[in-house]
Structure formats: C-alpha cells, structure tokens
Amino acid sequence: MRVVLADLKGPEGFVSKDTVVGGYGSRSKSFTAVTSVLSQIKWRFQVALSVQMAELAAIAAASGHEVVYTRDEFVEGDVAVVLSSLVDYRHETAWADAMRARGIRTGFVGLAASKLPHLFAGHADFVISGEPEEAFMRLIRGEQLAGLCASREVADLDSLPFPRWDLLPAASRLPRRTVPLAGRPLGGGFPLLASRSCPEFCTYCPIRILATYRARSVGSIADELEQLCDRYPRPHVIFRDPLFSQDRDRCLALSDEILSRGLRLTFECETRLDRLDEQLIDRLHAAGLRTICFGVESHSPATLRKVARRPIPPRHQSAIVDHCHRTGIVTAAQYVLGFLQDDWSSIAATIASAVALGSTFAQFKLLTPYPGTPLWKQLEHRVYERDWHKFDGFTPTFTHPNLSADELQFLLGAAYARFYMRPSWLGTYLRVPGNRARDYLRALDDRVSARQARSEIALMSRAVEC
C-alpha cells in the first residue's frame, strides 16, 4: 500500500503544528515592526518537522508499506493521512477535498481533528480521534477506517518505533547554520518526545487534554539519540516535552547515558524553572544542552493561581537564568498577556519583569481559550471569534473584562518592542564583554525606553480616536 503523509505548509506566515499549542498549532503574525522581523526570520529559515508524521512513517514502513511525504504537492497513493491544526484547517480541508476528488481515501489525525471533528468530517473519509498510532496500525493492516475512529493511547511508549526522518525529505533540508553566538541551528532541529501529555493542570493549556501523562525509559531515549547521531552529523535535538525535567534523576541518568555512549549532539528542552538547579543544569550542559524554554506567564502569583499554575519565586527564576547565561545556555521565556485579572498596570508589570529577568529571548502571546481546556468551559460565553484561524495566540478572541481588543493588541506589540528594542538586549545576545560596555548599553536603555513611551502614547491615542 502507498501511504501519503501530509504535513501541509501554511500559505500565510510560518505555521507550526504537531506539538505546538498541544497540536492546535500557531502562526507567526506580523503586526508591528519587531514582530515582522521575527516572523520573517521564521518564514525564511525555519523548517517545522512533525514528529507525529515521522512516527507514522516508521509504523507504515515497518509493515512493508511505501511512504510518501508531502508538504503541499498532490501525490498519488492508496490512502492519505493529513496532520490537522486549528490555525490552518481551511487549507488542510481544501487539500483533502482535492485528494478525494482524485479517488484517494483521505483522513485526518491530530488534536484539532480529535477535539473539533466537525471541521474535518465533511472533507474526509475518516477522522482519527486521540493519539493516532493504534488506529493507524489498524489502517495499515487493511482495516478500512470510516467516520470518526477512536484511537486508544499507547501505554508503553517504548514499544513504538523511532521516527523515520529519512522518509521525510524536509529533514534533509534542515539548515546547519547557527544563530550567531546563540548555539542552536537557525532552522530548528529534530523534535523528540521523551514523554507525552503533561503532569501539570494549567487550565489554559491544551497539551494535556488528549491523553494521560506517560514517559519513556532512559534507554529508549538514548537509543533514539544514538540512531540520530549515526544518521546525521552532530544533530540538534528539540525535546518537545512540556516538562522535560519533571524527574530529576531521570534527567541525570539520561545525561550520563549520552556521555557514556559518546554521543555528539546538542539539544534544547522546555521545562519549569523550579524543576532545575545548578547541578542539574551543569550535567545537562555537559551532555549537550544549549537552550532552555520555560513559561513565566505572568508577574502576578495570584493571577497564576487562578489558572491553576503554580507560581515560582522570582529569586529562583533569576538565579537559574543567570546560571544558564554563565554556563552558555540560551534561555527563552514565555509570557501570556490578557488573563482575566489583567489590566494596563498588571501587563506593564509583566513586561517590566520580563525585561528584568533578562532571558536571551522572550515570547509574548495573548490568552486564548482553546476548545477542550477548562478555560474554554469558563470563557466560552465570552468568545466572540469563530474564525478558528485567528486562534493563533496573537489575536484577541474573547471579550476581556478590563481591556478592549485594540488595547490587548497594542500591549502585545509594546511587549515585543520593550523587550527587543533595548540596546542591553543586543549586548546580552551578542555577549558583549566588559562591565563598562554593558553599563553603557543599560544607560542607553533609558533613552530608548523614553522614546518608545512617546511612540506608544501617540499610537494608542490614534487608536482611541478611531
């Protein structure tokens, strides 16, 4: 059987799917000068690889089937499986319609198809609901799936074959250049899932709504890393677990395994800062850790508790970020603006704390109620936006009790400008040596900040007048 696996490239902006926002996906959006530059960098240089598609490719190939991977072309096959998203579903369903018109049975997998099957059912012969491996195995064994097909989660993740990146041509096009002095490939890397779902209970996050939390063994993860090193010289690996360092001893054991096997690689991970300490960071760095992503979300502990997110003491956050910088590890902090308790002053405090924390990078997004999350149940009556393409994290989607849509969009743009337009940020990024040079750049921050404040006042005044 010829199996077509489709992870379609978004026609507008840089679209990330698969494990991003739990699988609903995100689209980089240009709405200010700063975000335009960031979006263009992603659009031109990054390659978004789907670990889910690579895993399905491995399952099909292991059973002797031919696998054809596509990002946009219409290709012949016996069955086509499309990775779904929320932010690009119209493009995905149109592509599926065209494939079915060619006589090819076509179905969807992914979180969006699982939680919003009505968006895809009229454009597909089947929609797989849940983690797709179990139903996909039935499909390649000859079962003719039809309609909404439940797929049981795989209890033992070690039993799954490793992703077949050699069957995804996009993997061979990963740029090997690195971000200047940042220590990571400009085009991304190979995603790896050492666990699935999340053990936390944040009400706004869709990562944990598809299945329960399970983790792979250290031996299985190390075997996959070793296979990557055998096929690709010094690969960069992106651990896509939302809480990579949940088990400290497991992280230490994995670091020891990487070192004992002599694996030459670099990697990045996402975690909570209260799951890190200096000793653990040093061991992970010795094994290849070069970037850490983490959520800060809001400056206010009370706001975080309202969405069931455990606050982390600011002193600990600063200590970990400072140690990472001394060690040579890039830090990327994530923030959410527009919680129900937010107003102008609280968002200003969050932006100020982001600047003070001094991470290498920062990502700001607007609070978005995603279907299937506890937050959706709480805010559904406030949601006015029904164009699912706009659930991208950058577009207001619900009536906020304290801030208008224009104000939220303005504050989001201001957050990016305040963080990235600082001379001291450029100095941190480029690792400018010398206390005198760094003090001079910090002094320039005040001038730039004053100019930004005048510009923000003018922009908001025009918005209010309109």
Using the 3D structure, state the CATH architecture of the largest domain: Alpha-Beta Barrel
Strand order of the largest sheet: 4-1-5-6-7-8
Number of strands: 16
- CATH class membership of the largest domain: Alpha Beta
Terminal CA distance reads 59 Å
Secondary-structure class: alpha/beta
> What general outline do the C-alpha atoms trace?
globular
Alpha carbon gyration radius: 22 Å
Proportion of strand residues: 15-25%
Largest sheet: 6 strands, parallel
Q: Structurally, how many domains make up the residues?
A: 2
Q: Might you state the CATH topology name of the largest domain?
A: TIM Barrel
Which stretches of 5+ consecutive residues score pLDDT under 50? Answer: 175-185, 462-466
CATH superfamily of the largest domain: Aldolase class I
Count of alpha/pi helices:
16
Helical proportion, percent range: 40-55%
Mean pLDDT: 90
